[in-house]
Amino acid sequence: MKRVFAILLVLGTAVAGPMRAQVSDEDEAGGLLVRFLEGTFSDESRQIEVSGLEGAFSSQASIKKLTVSDADGVWLTISGAVLDWNRLDLVRGKFTVNALTAEEIVIARKPLPSTAVDLPNPEAQPFALPELPVAVELGEIGVKRFELGEPVLGLAAELRMSGALSLADGALETELSVTRLDRPGDALDLMAQFSNTTRQIALDLKLIEDAGGLISTVLKMPDRPPLLFTAKGDGPISDFTADIALVSDDAERIGGAVRLRGLEVPEGTDPTAPQGTRFSADLAGDITPMLPPEYRAFFGAETRLALNGVNHPDGRMEIEQLDLSSDALLLNGKMAMAAGGKLETALLHGRIAPPSGETVLLPISGPQTRIGAAQITLRMDGSETQDWDLTLSTDRLSRPDLTLRRADLSASGTMDQSAGLALDGDITAGLRGLEFTDTALAQAVGKDVTLDGHFTLPGTGALAFQGIELTGTDYTATLDGSLDGLQSGFEMEGRLRLEAADLGRFSGLAGRDLGGAVSADLSGTGAPLAGSFDITLAMQAQDLSAGIEQLDPLIAGTSTLALEAARGTDGLNIRSFTLDGTALSAQAKGVLKSTGSSLRFSAALDDLKRITPEVSGPLTLTGDLDQTGPAGREWTGKITLKGPDKSYADLSSTFDPDGQADLTFDALLDRIQRFVPDLPGQLAAKGKASRDTAGLWTLAADATGPAGVTTRIAGGFDETAGTADLTARGDLRLEAANPFMAPNSIAGRAEFDLALNGPPALSSLSGTVSTSGTRMAIPAAAQTIENISGRVTLGNSSAALAITGALGAGGGFRVSGPVALIPPYDGRIAVDLQNLILTDNKSVTSSASGQLLLSGPLTAGPTLSGRVVFGETELNLNAVSGSAAAAPIPQIAHVNEPAAVRATRARAGLIETGNGGGGGGPAIGLDLTLVALNRVFARGFGLQAELGGTLYLRGTTAAVEPVGQIELIRGTIDIIGRRLKLTKGVVTMQGDLSPYVDFSSSTTTEDGKATIEIAGPMDGPKVSVYAEPERPAEEALAMVVFGSRVADLSPFVIAKMAASLATLGRSGGAKDKLRKATGVDTVDFGTDDSGAAQVGAGTYLSDNIYTDFNINTQGETELNLNLDLSKSLTVKGSVDNSGSTGIGLFYERDY
């Protein structure tokens, strides 16, 4: 609103200057003045529009409409404004307004906060208070309709205002009337009169509003009651009483009177001499119904203000009594001042105590604040001892964000009123038991804080501090200096010393693990309002750490920083800047000003190995920036970076204030094999970028690298439209990605021909990326992918994939399909598996063929579906649990581990990062069928088993739901030279997709049932023997193998059984070698029913015909043939060397 009143003032003042003589045409003058008003009072966040300006150079000027708007639109509208003023009074140095009226004023809402950012000039601006060109007097004011929108005060209102003010010849007469147009009856009426001649005072103020009115709403009174406020009095100043009353809901809440009484005139006193006046005020009442319920306990049934005092004829003034009381508050005091304002005495006592309970809620804004007790005492003696003292204490303060057990402040000293009021004293303050709910803030501040020191406040001049010391846990701050007043822009001079013994206490506030100690010493002068300073800073740090792996090595040890700088009307002058650390050093100096700026800087790192283990050697940075060209409008500069060996980077640039810019860069990275071991050589890049005044950038850059790698980027970028027209052509070595995908690695070349047309987004890309003959190693899967060839075609906001490859162990695959390049990145990617040989080179070997499909939004839960058929599969239980080499490596603590070693372990995936467990991508839906009808062989621990079946994977990758199992077809387990037939064999998948095996063989005798079992995860199955009823393992084993108790066995058999128990689970290497050499599927060693040693072998003749033969040391042979007619029906035939034959029909069904 200040801008609007300023516009009305300009209407009067601007037309009285030279413009009147220079512009004769009234319309032209009006248009010129409108442009002047709109241009002067508008800025980036506020636009003022004036329409219908008439009579700009007459005694009556009018504006048809004036609007003020911001980014959300118009918030203030003034219609039909008329200014009736006296032009001749301008000659007398006054601006007299006879009448200022408006048909309508509408304030629709509060204006937005200003977003205009005025960048500071390098030069400091001298502080000055604003000055008005003329004196202003305002007469009649009237607004026919004044509208307040609901966002302004929380309630919409329409008002009418009228009034008049007359101040002339020692007499004051004023009238003001405000009425609600939208609520008849709500009104404010004021009449006030006073005459120096008659010494009569007349006052009549009345405010009335119904329930839900403007005042009760703004003050947030409970239930928004109807209000009536009156203040009325009439009489001479020597005997004047004004009765005051505040009524809500027809009940008086505050009542009382303000009185003026003339002092008795002693006999013989000149009756025309000035007379003294006694004044008093006595107001009391129950204001709790007008307060929120939570504040009522503080005030109670009566709140009272009592004031008595005297204005003496000689100019002395006394407050003899000041009492303010409520249920929780008691404040009383008195004061005396001599003529001329010199303080003689002042005394103030106060206390706050809960009426009931331990604490009371204070009636203050902001977070709810409760205290247990508070006391204040102020004493000042300006007539005799010239001393003063102040004490203040608070107990048990609590807010939602903090609690404070005790706060104390005491100050005392002397005073001097010879030239104003000057104070000199000592101050001591302490906070004890301070606890913040914010744990980071509590850690930083600590529980106890103290403040001590001396200060001097002269009547005129600067406030001085001597030895002001703030002390907390592990930190101190000491200040010696002075602070001047407003006229100097609060000019400061002094010295500030800071000590922080442990920066770790500030880790929570910083959001990272800090460490080390810092001490700083800052001295100099400054004026905040003017923006000027001249400072010297010295800082020392020891063993700093910031919880940033790349930064901490640079700031370890001892570091010192020194700065000398000044800012004034001649700009910012950095006389010197020096940073000297164990690893990092830097220097800078220069001058920044409107014209002729320059800056020189340099920095050096002693060894790059501190931040990257792959590189060793120093790194230096130098830079020169200068302001040149006409009137210092152009900036030019060069920045050079030099690294170990021949590596460097140069950047030269020119900038102009109109937006034009030219940049040239040239860089060389030598021996890039330090970062990518597979790419020996150099990487070089150079190019140019330029910008015109319209914000259009033009770029041309070339890069070359090892093995003939070349890249060229060219095109432009439009800042205004935010669009690019760039092309990138060339090739690159894929080995450059290895540091980011360790421990996996890739080797090969990719060619690309890409274009970016439109906003910088994937949807604007078009072109192709292709590769051939690429190889990728995936250690975690024990696989290599060979001969990767493919092309990715980009265009129309999508990418089309066509990729083929082969596994190192055998078999191939093809990946094809489209992927959208706009969210949610819908895709339909088909994967064709072509007899892939899958192995972990340890326990599992298989082959797989089938088709998979990944479809749906790739960033919002796609679905993986398809069918995979597995060929002959080997599960080697011995490989994972049968040797010492399979034992897990215990946790190893690495002490003083070199950075290079840690980097190697990180690339190998041997460092726990704490980020495992779920990944960061969306869960993928599963609908997979895994088929292996037979030829799934499980071997180890004496086990020979063939299985088959089908598995279904449902759910998501975050919660896999496997259904189905691989079941036993046939199998045996050898122990103590005996072959036992398996009665159970199952391989299932757990929720994390790890195989789980469960094989067992059971025997039932007259003593019970005994079972030998091999069960557990595929990477660590356990062998157990048990019986029902329960008995020792050796007896259970005897029952399984011999059908007898241990007591019935011969010593030789018992020894053999013990040896078998001790060696159970060792690797069956000999049988594996024989099986692989002969090409059969199974090989067995054991004894026959007569105890003779025998060997057996078996193999598949087709998918459902299985044959095996046995030969013993007696020369006896037997041949068996198994024909699987179905999963439940098998035909078995046999023939031996004696000519005996047999045939059998076997039916088996699991329940």
UniProtKB/TrEMBL annotation:
Alphabetized UniProt keyword annotations: Membrane, Signal, Transmembrane, Transmembrane helix
Biological processes, Gene Ontology terms: protein secretion
Signal peptide stretch: 1-21
GO cellular component, one term: plasma membrane
Translocation and assembly module TamB C-terminal domain mapped to chain residues: 803-1151
Keyword flag Membrane: yes
One Pfam family cited in the UniProt record for this chain: TamB
Membrane topology classification: Single-pass membrane protein
Subcellular location: Membrane
Superkingdom as given in the UniProt entry: Bacteria
Alphabetical list of InterPro entries matching this protein: TamB_C
Main location: membrane
Protein name: Translocation/assembly module TamB
Organism whose genome encodes this protein: Antarcticimicrobium sediminis
Organism phylogeny: Bacteria, Pseudomonadati, Pseudomonadota, Alphaproteobacteria, Rhodobacterales
